[in-house]
Specification:
mainly alpha
C-alpha cells in the first residue's frame, strides 16, 4: 500500500496523451472478466469511501461499472468499442479536486491488488488513465 503514494504523482507528472495498449495488457488484467472484477471492486470501494461516495449518489452503479469496464477494456487493447464522450462532460458538474481523483485511483489500486493484477500491469493501466485527470479535476 505504501507504493501507492509514490506511484500516483510519478504517473501524473509523466503522463502524456492516452494511447491504447496492445492486447497484452488486456490479457494481464484478466481479459474482460478480470477488468469487470477490478472495476467492480473499485466502484464498490468508492461507494463506501466517505471522501468520494457522494460523487456516485445520482448514478446507476451497474451502468457505471459497465461503462468503466468497457473503457478499461478498450484502453488496454481489448475488443471493446471506444466511447467518444470525453471525461469532462461526465465529471464537470461534480467539482472534483485532486484529492478526490487520488482517492479513486487508490481504490482502483486496491481493487487491482485484490484481483492479483501484476504490478507492471497496474502501472501500465494507471499510465493510460492518468491523462484523464485534466478533464476530471476542475477545482
Amino acid at each position: 500500500m505504501r507504493r501507492r503514494f509514490l506511484v500516483i504523482p510519478m504517473l501524473l507528472a509523466a503522463a502524456g496523451p492516452a494511447r491504447a495498449a496492445d492486447s497484452a495488457l488486456f490479457q494481464q488484467l484478466g481479459g474482460l472478466d478480470g477488468i469487470e472484477r477490478i472495476v467492480g471492486g473499485m466502484v464498490d470501494r468508492s461507494l463506501g469511501d466517505p471522501r468520494i461516495a457522494w460523487a456516485f449518489d445520482n448514478s446507476n452503479h451497474d451502468r457505471l461499472k459497465r461503462l468503466i469496464a468497457q473503457q478499461f477494456c478498450n484502453l488496454s487493447g481489448g475488443p471493446c468499442p471506444r466511447r467518444e464522450r470525453g471525461m469532462g462532460p461526465a465529471h464537470r458538474h461534480l467539482g472534483l479536486a485532486e484529492y478526490h481523483f487520488n482517492a479513486l485511483v487508490g481504490n482502483l489500486q486496491d481493487a487491482m491488488e485484490e484481483a492479483g493484477t501484476p504490478f507492471r500491469a497496474q502501472l501500465r493501466l494507471l499510465a493510460l488513465l492518468a491523462p484523464m485527470k485534466r478533464e476530471i479535476v476542475t477545482r
